[in-house]
Amino acid sequence: MTFANPIRGEAEVTIGAITFRIAVTFSGLARLSDALGTKTLDDLYTRVLGYEPKAVACAVRCLIVPDDGDQLSELVAKILDDSNISATDQFAWRDAVQRALVGHIEAGNSRRDDRTANQLSADAVLGKPVSPS
């Protein structure tokens, strides 16, 4: 198994006997929101972190990161098989989703440009950074 990359919003999770990776990405969240009929991230996370069975099943399918050679549908079927997943897995699930979310947010924050409009225009026009004053 490939290790989870928190910079990409990934986290490792073990459900039953199967360890896999999930990633919180905007496109994954959009697919999950559509599948669950949620309107806000708060609603989405309440359902996913609350370990609502349908939300978890859809989240596994929408957020999973398959390793090379994994057949996605087969891996999802194994994870969600009644002989594998149970209510016992809710704590590991919550922990992984929270770690993946933090990674997603931190990655987004690192891509934001904190310069003012003055600094941006000076960089573009003068070709050199202007210190904030």
Automatic annotation (TrEMBL):
<protein>
    <submittedName>
        <fullName>Uncharacterized protein</fullName>
    </submittedName>
</protein>
